Amino acid sequence: MATPDPIPASDSAAEGPAARGYRAVRDLARQVLPWRVVETIAFLRRLARQVRARRAEPRLTVAVDIDSLYETLTGVGWYLYEILAHLAQRDDLRLRLYGHRLAAPGAPGAPAPVVPLPAGPAIEHVTYAAPQGLVIPAWRADQLLRRAAPLLVAADGNRVLFGPNYLLPPLFRLARGARVATIHDLVFRRLPWAVRPDTGRALAERLERTLLEAELLLTPSQAVAAELVAAGVAPSRVRPIHHGPGQQPPPTVLAVATPPAGVPARYGLFVGTLEPRKNVATLLTAWRELGRDGGAPPLVLCGPQGWRARELRQRLADAEREGWLRYLGYVSAPELAALYRGATVVAVPSLYEGFGLPAIEALAAGAPLVVSDLPVFHEVAGDAALYAPAGRPDVWRERLRQVLDDDDLRRELGRRGRTRSARFDWRLAAAATADAWRDAAGTGRV
Asked: pTM of the prediction?
């Protein structure tokens, strides 16, 4: 007669700790068949081979935090994408892309980048996924891999660790490569009230460590570099590298691009997130006065709504009802390029910017430009724009009126803008970034 199980299944609810432990061990033992052991050993060996191969890579290896490519792309995301895309074909670099704790896209519950990652001989997207058939379920093995992600990154032995979004991520905390980070601006220090509280707290708590530990800090402008130096960072550790001209669709796409439906033939344009730092309220006040003076075309706004936008939303709704404003929200890159190309004037009234991609995009499109009187805009736009103090709607009205009423001025600003925009090139930005990585790693340039 067969011996019954000492713990009947029907009594499991009343089991004590020892009985439950026995049942767990017994169930696990039933799963640990020889083929599962073989599969687990083979999987661990594959991981070890991958790590050894990565450590033996002769090219300059750069660990890149790509978490900003997993959410709707704004300035930081587009910056990272363009840098990677323009370095993807290099044969002297190995860019290892690490994102969202190394989960493989397509795995159950795993996020995926919102854009296809650049591909080429320099690019390696590092992910880990456990197969079926191990001694533990695949989902549990994936959990363990996610927890071990900092160790796995450290094991790869990358010579440079790159944080393109202000901070080095926790994923890199155990790695020992040279640290390089891009500091896009210091708005959380300059205008703390204009930054989301959670963002401000994260930067205040963690940026100081990046400023202390990084071998090199990259900035998009001389203006931000000067702010870092004024904050006590040694000039030798700061390197300004201008961005390229924002989002530029391929020429074949640009040639047939059209604005969104319903955009009037003549219009003023604002591009950016609707948030306090962008100072849209000053522009609305100035444009309303222009309309009262007579002869002002509609104002078109495009960009997502940010935080603290409730009062602004009401003003936009009122202006749309009055007929002098169109709010488009987020638009595609071809539509945005067409909007720049057709704008009578582009206004960038920001209280603070680290670079100001909309200004560069307007210059590249040959659009007449009026910007806030900020050091960074003088650095970027030079004599290809008119300037107005950010807090003076009356001066903004005057500058906008100058452009709207003077055909010759608009043509001259457009000509200067196209000439000026030639200084900003993603290929140059990417090459300078690669040089910075190499210098941080102590190998010199090739």
From this structure: 0.87
